[in-house]
Amino acid sequence: MVLSKPASDSDLTMHATSASRYVRDSLPRYEMPENSIPKEAAYQVIHDELLLDFKPKLNLASFVTTLMEPECDKLIMESINKNYVDMDEYPVTTELHNRCVNMIARLFHTPLGESEDAIGVGTVGSSEAIMLAGLAFKRKWQNKRKAEGKPCDKPNIVTGANVQVCWEKFARYFEVELKEVKVTEGYYVMDPAKAVEMVDENTICVAAILGSTYNGEFEDVKLLNDLLLEKNKQTGWDTPIHVDAASGGFIAPFIYPELEWDFRLPLVKSINVSGHKYGLVYAGIGWNIWRSKDDLPEELIFHIKYLGAEQSTFTLNFSKGSSQIIAQYYQLIRLGQEGYKNIMENCHDNAMVLKEGLEKTGCFEILSKADGVPVVAFSLKNKKGGHDEFEVSEMLRRYGWIVPAYPMPADAQHVIVLRVVIRAEFSRTLAERLVHDITTVLHELEKLPPKVNSEGKEVHVNVEENWSNGGVSKRKSDLETQREITTYWKNYVSAQKEIKRQKEFCGALISLCVLRPASESDLLVLSTSASRYVRDSLPRYKMPESSIPKEAAYQIIHDELLLDCKPKLNLASFVTTLMEPECDKLVMESINKNYVDMDEYPNRCVNMIARLFHTPLGESEDAIGVGTVGSSEAIMLAGLAFKRKWQNKRKAEGKPYDKPNIVTGANVQVCWEKFARYFEVELKEVNVREGYYVMDPVKAVEMVDENTICVAAILGSTYNGEFEDVKLLNDLLLEKNKQTGWDTPIHVDAASGGFIAPFIYPELEWDFRLPLVKSINVSGHKYGLVYAGIGWNIWRSKDDLPEELIFHIKYLGAEQSTFTLNFSKGSSQIIAQYYQLIRLGEEGYKNIMENCHENAMVLKEGLEKTGRFEILSKDDGVPVVAFSLKNKKGGHDEFVVSEMLRRFGWIVPAYPMPAGAQHVIVLRVVIRAEFSRTLAERLVHDITTVLHELDKLPPKVTSEVEENGNNGGVSKRKSDLETQREVTTLWKNYVIAQKEIKRQKVMAS
């Protein structure tokens, strides 16, 4: 969340000595530079600045993994250009996702048959997983209440006050009352008895935490289940349980296997777990597993068609990288149960080393338990001189350690704790070093004068101090005293500790155990290339019992991924598949940093993009915006802001606020439908018509009423790339608002067009130059030229973002503001976005967008020359070429063309246009920056080849035409399946006979 502003004029530019061999001029901090700079300079500027970040390994505030094996890093970079949502194009990646879901489900004792598939989904982290789980509980409860004819407008959820902030976000964003069981001093987790007392007929679920964020303690899920079973029996309710196992889900199965907390308990209906915590993967991967299909309402699952084949999706995000999915599968087969058990036991042992070391100082009370997540939470027994845990935390930073200090949740806020998370990469040597440095800090604190009492400007301390005059002096101001203290300890440390600290400050990497080949199972993964390391097959849907060599894990996954299509030839996707090596290097250098712990680069990117969109800002005024996983999250945040602002206004006016709606074209991306369905907003769609495939502004404004929270305009339709007329929409809506007294605003979904229009259509008015445009989203991973997993939402002003939606969290070491649906996620894409903005500048983006447009024209002209296609895209807009067959000879349509192009390596989707023109079938090619003119010409050649082949095929059979049989009568039609098999066999044999040699040459080129 961008809430800061530059401190001085000097902050508006930045200098980089290391980059001076390439550039001499300063770069603007909060605006895109006009000109490009050398890629080496962009790398050096960012690399040098990132040296000022703390070492991720010493960030003990975070549960997120910061170290993986080189073989896994290699797999990550090999797959970083694959968009996970393109399931049809990357079937092996999808298969690896399914294997992970099934392995984790079986780890959690999901009641499945031997060959039955589990129900689950991969997410960006546990925040998204929890929101999906909560949404499923809410919708299932609503459906049951509606069927019973009972009110369904006041759902609630029962949790402990110690839940992670994402639960509070879920409750506030999805309008569910959060009923919190307060903790007490000495008992810092949810009391199951008190939780069950709070349950009523409106409770959608009780959430239990397997590993509290505050002290790592497991809540008693078994007792909760037993008490809730009894209450359900007495009341006739069926209140379920969700287990938030974000931290503990990959710990309990391995070192507490007898503990009943999962699907062994009948009321547990869903479980989330963070792959990027003790699943041992870099930030950006979580999982949610449901007990059965009955626990996930079908209405929440969307079925989309415009990526080349029908796909099912239940996520809040859409486009995102595949790397973390692949990395999770690597860890599961590489380590197996044996490896995870060893690592978790090591973490537990290292936590005990740290705990015992702290206890020996005699200064700390340990507030964490021996069993649970390997976390050590501790507080000072005696705050001598007023020096508290916050000061210990601050002083430890001098030694490189990030150890957060924060208050416990309600009702134990008076208890302040320090917390150390023991991750797999935190060795025993580091634990001992940390104890040493904490002891040193305690000795330094003892030598400092007492802190100032904050009750007045000049006050006496409780314990009188003797000064040289023998009396009691008045205290200096807070600022003066703190400056003296700071100077004192800085000088002390410089004199006494500098040499020793430099020598001793290093850590040893923890080595993971390897070793035996895995056991057999019915469903196996076979890999010949891995046979040099392991001979036995691996179970497909269960974690192997034993570890395997890291080289074998790499080879197995690498070989399987060869079956995915080449990302560069995936013309269904808008997502970037190629970046410069210097940026790839930065991506890997920062892949172990958790985005939630950083701030400066998101601020710069938000401000650059906001100024690109003509946000009305003063020269030193900071923009309001947020970085997201993609435009899906950005759109949901924007829609939520519109909804809440509209609700607040209606409440203030004493008017009903239970029927919000949003007006869009039928051509909107599926995330708008998700927003409407998940956040309970009516979606009023303007149907398209043949020849006009975007929203008609006149019809849109006609649909607006007093309950309309906003009108959404698309700058670059998913279907044909066309820009909607935002200027006309703004003018018509201004007039309607004037007539009615309403203030209906506009949101612009510039996911695709936001990085195109400013550079090649600078005079086009579509952004904050129009007064009714209040927010804009854009995808950094589309024409922002970054790999999948980055989007942005910019608001016109603070007034357009209700303060109540912003959360302020403290348990990461300092107060942070957040307005996102996700929490932990990788920082690489943020850094990659900043690289592109300063590397390319306005000049570079303009050149690339013009090249894309010209290559689109080459493809368009080539298709027109065939005489077989009608072009449905416009020359202006996103560089997309959408086209349909003029004459479907022999019944062979666009779907057949799409399928046959796959033989040449091309992924060109075919799909129907949206409501109002569903009968129009189109093929669509997205021209990305990495799609060259040579490829455009090659594609035209291959399409022409396919057309010639189709001309030689027999007509497709239709069930309406009769055939003459040998007996002179009329025979019955064969089934569609039989006929299609015959046709398929015919053209396959033809192609094999005529084209095999040529195809091999083409593919090789």
TrEMBL record:
Superkingdom of origin organism: Eukaryota
Protein's UniProt name: Glutamate decarboxylase
GO cellular component, one term: cytosol
GO BP terms, alphabetized: L-glutamate catabolic process
Key words of the record: Calmodulin-binding, Decarboxylase, Lyase, Pyridoxal phosphate
The UniProt record lists the keyword Lyase: yes
Family per record: Belongs to the group II decarboxylase family.
GO molecular function: calmodulin binding; glutamate decarboxylase activity; pyridoxal phosphate binding
Organism in which the protein naturally occurs: Quercus suber
Cofactor(s) needed for function: pyridoxal 5'-phosphate
N6-(pyridoxal phosphate)lysine modification, residue list: 277
